[in-house]
Amino acid sequence: SPKSAILTAADPGFRESLSRWSSIDLNVPDVVVQPISEADVVTTIQEAVAAKVPFVPACGGHSLWSTIENGLIIDLSRYKGIATDTSQHTVTIKGGVVMKELQLALAQASQFTTVGNGNTVGIIPYCVGGGISSYTPLIGYACENIVSARVVVVEVSSARNTDLLWAIRGAGQVFGLVTEIVMRTYDLSSMGNSGVRQLGMLTYPSSRAMEVCEVLAKVISGSDRPSAGHFMIVQGSSKEHVCNVAPQFFGTRPEFQRAFQPLADLEPDSNMDMPSTFDVHSDHLYSMCLKGDFKRFSQIGLAVLHPENFGSLVKLHKELLETCPGAEKSVFSLEWHTPTPDKGARENPTSFGLKGVDIWLNILTWYTDSGLHDKVQEFERKACEIMRSDIIPEAYVTYTNTSRDEPIENRYKDPGAVNRLKELKRRWDPTGVFNRNFL
């Protein structure tokens, strides 16, 4: 349609359209198409396939796989739509809607759903790839809350193409370009405390990491209230090496303080807490969404918190900062969620299949020198090796939204699900138009 944009290197907006969260493997395509409607998305894909031109979709620009050379990018930033239906407790999300836009729309309707920790992350790719969330302890993963979806010209729901709906709930990026999803929403009041959650930040010297980890493990396992959070290894504002515990608690401030009192009893260097509402869920992490530099974010699943392993991870992070100039923004962290109740969205069948994983190792490497690619990647590999030291390879778990390089069997743990996904891939995308996974 006339309102859609087709950009080439000669157009003023071409270079800006290529900007990404990370400059790793950033390519320059022949064309960037910015459709304004689903019909234009379909036409673009049809013409690209007919001409045998490879393409990739782009939404929020966070994916390392949304860039291509000798092909075209389908940039969904101009095609957006959000429609809430409070009577049905659903929200319809179209195209390139990002987290912050969804949060604002739902908060205005006194609703919430699963969202991630980045305001500029595309909501649809986040959801169809699993959708780990701080709200998982309450309502499950994002993919479990997908009610229906549209994949280019195919509509899937509990009544139509149910096999593909199952696949899209966790492997949606494999089967096509998902142009629309309908998600389950929940009343903000069901979160407790009138929809206000508590955020905390307790800071300790990294030399106390093992001690803090041991206490944190007991706090999490002994909790009778839902919470999530991160135990982070970072460089502090004064360039000191520190560990931060950042809980997110669903309850009142006094309840929060009681739940995490054992950590306060360790006498951290600083101890802060504040209320937070859904509309500003990730505003405090704004700097993490800045575009440019070289960044990679990956996640692997863990069974338990091991203080000894975490102590080794602290040493590795310190070595990374000491030997890789410009990498001081890199963060290694453990993310936890208290267990999700086996009801509601958790009862929905999904291909994601990682319902029992409540602890994740998050590896964010952030550096400025492209000559450090291989060296930094080796640190990432060592971090995974340390935290998997007591796990047999057959039990390795990897989050597919951030780590597509590991074996399929690490990302989808049920052999039956893998076989079913392979069968569906052969049926819906036998030539690998969208990607070669499961072929």
From TrEMBL:
Q: Which residues form the FAD-binding PCMH-type domain?
A: 25-188
Q: Which GO terms describe its molecular function?
A: FAD binding; oxidoreductase activity
Q: Which domain of life is it from?
A: Eukaryota
Flavoprotein among keywords: yes
Arranged from A to Z, the UniProt key words for this protein are: FAD, Flavoprotein, Oxidoreductase
Pfam families to which the protein is assigned, alphabetical: FAD_binding_4
Read off the InterPro entries from this record: FAD-bd_PCMH, FAD-bd_PCMH-like_sf, FAD-bd_PCMH_sub1, FAD-bd_PCMH_sub2, FAD-linked_Oxidoreductase, Oxid_FAD_bind_N
SUPFAM superfamilies for this protein = FAD-binding/transporter-associated domain-like
The family annotation for this protein states: Belongs to the oxygen-dependent FAD-linked oxidoreductase family.
Q: Which PANTHER family match?
A: BINDING OXIDOREDUCTASE, PUTATIVE (AFU_ORTHOLOGUE AFUA_1G17690)-RELATED, FAD-BINDING PCMH-TYPE DOMAIN-CONTAINING PROTEIN
Name recorded for this polypeptide = FAD-binding domain-containing protein
Say which species the protein is native to: Viridothelium virens
List the taxonomic lineage: Eukaryota, Fungi, Dikarya, Ascomycota, Pezizomycotina
